[in-house]
Design a protein that fits this description.
Elements: E1 2-7, H1 13-26, E2 30-35, H2 42-46, H3 61-65, E3 90-92, E4 95-99, H4 112-124, E5 131-136, E6 154-159, H5 163-178, E7 184-191, H6 194-204, E8 210-213, H7 216-223, H8 233-251
Parallel strand pairs: 1-5, 1-6, 2-4, 2-5, 6-7, 7-8
Antiparallel strand pairs: 3-4
Helix pairs in contact: 1-8
Bound molecules: adenosine-5'-triphosphate (ATP) and magnesium ion.
Length: about 250
């Protein structure tokens, strides 16, 4: 499965991504985790040391250009995850972590060309049955207009029970429908009670594929720089529920 995780800034994209990545890995899947946030945090949230050593995917541009010469190591027809050069990733267990772009200085321009590289990668990468990709996306809607994720199997839109996040979700949904994405689902995060869920459902007209409640354990883990996945079994169950829903769709 190729899964992209989107939503308004700060709604919990990285948190949800981390729980999905670790759950897949626990199930024995080989997971390629891609942090597409221009200010990347996924490594820290996953508890990966040495994130500052990862060379950004955007630097693979030259490798992509070798495609036209037909002898590049990467762009044979249907490149596999195992063909990706190791210098662009951190590996821990069965998780490979890649980071899209270098951190940009103020006024350094947009991440458009980085997204061209990511789009090519997502489009052409061939996944074996035990391989999955989880893409932790940049906040908001702008990047959706670039069509970067048009080849993903599932788009998750993370929302919280407040209006701004739901408005952004509706925009994402519309843009994703334009891209004709196969499956678009909502994940409710930071939920306190049933009223929050009812509010989200009424506003979006969609039942969330999974609910992540507001977790004091995650908050405490985050504040003490501990990996969040180990902190809260309840949210691990939520991640499992989402994955059942996604693989159910994949089998149809
Ligand atoms: N269910 C939850 N319970 C408790 N804290 C949470 C929960 N979800 C997210 N948080 C906390 O909220 C903050 C923002 O979450 P996160 O970084 O996952 O959001 P994001 O959408 O990836 O943000 P950005 O748009 O900046 O990339 C983090 O400090 C995270 O630990
Ligand atoms: Mg994030």
């Amino acid at each position: 499965m190729k899964i992209a995780v989107s939503g308004k800034g700060g709604v919990g994209k990285t948190t949800v991504s981390a729980f999905l990545i670790k759950t897949l890995a626990e199930r024995g899947k080989q997971v390629l985790a891609i942090d597409a946030d221009p200010s990347p945090h996924l490594a820290r949230v996953l508890g990966f040391p040495g994130a500052d050593r990862i060379r950004p995917i955007a630097d693979m541009r030259e490798l992509l250009q070798e495609r036209s010469e037909r002898d590049g190591p990467f762009y044979r027809l249907n490149p596999k995850v195992s063909d990706l050069p190791e210098r662009f990733m951190l590996k821990e267990g069965n998780i490979k972590l890649m980071v899209l772009g270098a951190i940009r200085e103020g006024g350094a321009g947009c991440a458009c060309s980085d997204n061209v590289v990511l789009k090519a990668l997502l489009n052409t990468l061939f996944l074996g049955p035990d391989e999955d990709i989880v893409l932790d996306m940049e906040a908001g809607v702008e990047h959706l207009g670039r069509g970067t994720i048009k080849s993903v199997d599932h788009l998750l839109i993370v929302v919280q029970p407040y209006l701004g996040s739901l408005e952004t979700a509706m925009k994402i949904k519309t843009l994703a429908a334009d891209l004709k994405l196969a499956d678009i689902v909502v994940v409710a995060n930071n939920v306190k009670d049933q009223e929050d869920i009812t509010y989200i459902e009424a506003h979006l007209g969609m039942v969330p594929a999974g609910v992540f409640y507001a977790s004091n354990r995650v908050r405490a883990a985050e504040r003490s720089s501990q990996p969040i996945f180990e902190s809260d079994p309840g949210l691990r169950d939520s991640a499992s529920q989402i994955l059942e829903r996604l693989s159910g769709v994949a089998k149809q």
